[in-house]
Input
Amino acid sequence: MPTRRDFIKVAAGTAVGTSMCAVLAEDVFAMTEQDTFEQDSFEQDSFEQDSFEQDSSKIPSHAAFGLDGLHGEAAKKKMFFGSATSENRIITDIPYRTALVRESGIIVPEYEMKWDIMRPSATTYNFADADFMINFARQNGLAVRGHTLCWHRALPSWFASTANSRNAAQLLTEHIATVCGRYKGRIHSWDVVNEAIEPTDRQTNGLRNSPWFRLLGESYIETAFRAAHQADPASLLVYNEYGVEFDDMQRSDAILNLLRRLKARNVPLHALGVQGHIRAADKAKFAANMQRFRTFLRDVAALGLSIIITELDCDDTALASNITARDEGVGGMYGDYCSVVMNEPAVIGIITWGLTDKYTSLNSTNPRADRLPQRPLPLDANMVRKNAWYALEYWFKNTTQRPRQTITSVAEERIAPTHRLRCVPHTHRSECAIQFTLERSEDVLLRLVDVRGQDVQILAQTRLEAGEHHVVLNYAPFPAGVYFCILQSPSFLVSEKILLQK
Ligand code: G3I
Output
């Protein structure tokens, strides 16, 4: 399995026709890490300028080279959409990576910022994986959620034998100060404490009998939030929880009362994360509790807190095997869920716990009886949009605009890319001028892929010198749709979205 550090050199090919041309603004989808790609056999076509065609009927009405994913719709209402992801998927799966950048405005590492990955020992840190996620996000204009600074799960093997009532507070505050300090200014929001409530544990205030609670009492929660705020004052600090959608009043009341106690003590708490792990089996129960869920969200908002749906997915194990029926059932649950959360103005964004069924963790935690893979997410395993995607799109289109921008346009933060790529359509021919700049001589691969990331045409695979380059793409043979022009080398990958309408 290729890793971040493996890459295959692009075989030298014949030179591609190049000419000096102005490089226009970039639309960057770049990997700062060395990317991996397979060698394709390649026939060098001449990119001679064709004779000028006067037949205006062939001129496609080019839509803007723009964003057409869920975040594009969310951002119109000053909300955001994104999904959980992981380093390995980003590195190894180009169709997935293409879909992730197309659909998302924000990502959350599913593993890379948890203690069991980040803390190999009580005195050492592994930042490599989280650094990769931060760099990938910044190079691709994505914001990042941090997940999670304090949780009873995903604790490293040394924790139980090392942490005690004397050192636990220092372990917690040093971890948070170090991690939040390293990523200061780069984290949109931190899940500071995750899942601290569990009424069935029969502890005071319905708190979970977690290692942190046993070692420090309820005060660990305030300690964590204050440490995070001190280390990164700009980050939105979130308490993240599940199970607030139904009639489990013990749980909802315990969560609400915890939030009230924290706010009463002026703890720097800014939002509640509602995980949103819903189940198709609960459709009737959800419908029967919609008003109570609305009231809960309103009560949270009344504390001055924002709300983020942080881990939305829909378990389909209760649905029959038929894929169409399952997608309809899951999509219906997404619609029911959105009909509540989208109508609460305090809800500022939706994150799904994965973007595609290909990578849902539900298949390992809750496998279907028929052993078929679950279908809980907006895209199927081939990155094709499903009923759930259209339900989210409908509700982003039909919700009210939020009062303020809840996610800084990461494009403005985008660091100046070292490689720029721009596709400019000819107004009189079915051609795009693909212009790009190389900072140094590179073995490059320039190709057109379809919306699923499948190769449509290899445009260049050769070594090119530093400077500006220009390749003409004749798109007459291609059907209308979304394409991505990808320029990559062993050291970077950039892409430009192209929406062909004919
Ligand atoms: O990578 C190792 C692999 O090398 C090893 O062979 C294998 C067997 O031990 O474990 C693999 O790590 C697993 C990891 O997922 C990657 O697959 C861990 O054991 C497993 O515990 C971990 O589960 C994740 C879980 O959080 C704990 O971190 C789930 O995928 C992830 O979806 C889940 O996400 C949580 C949120 O963080 C909080 N809210 C609930 C949500 C779902 O449970």
Q: What stands out?
A: The chain has 16 helices and 16 strands.
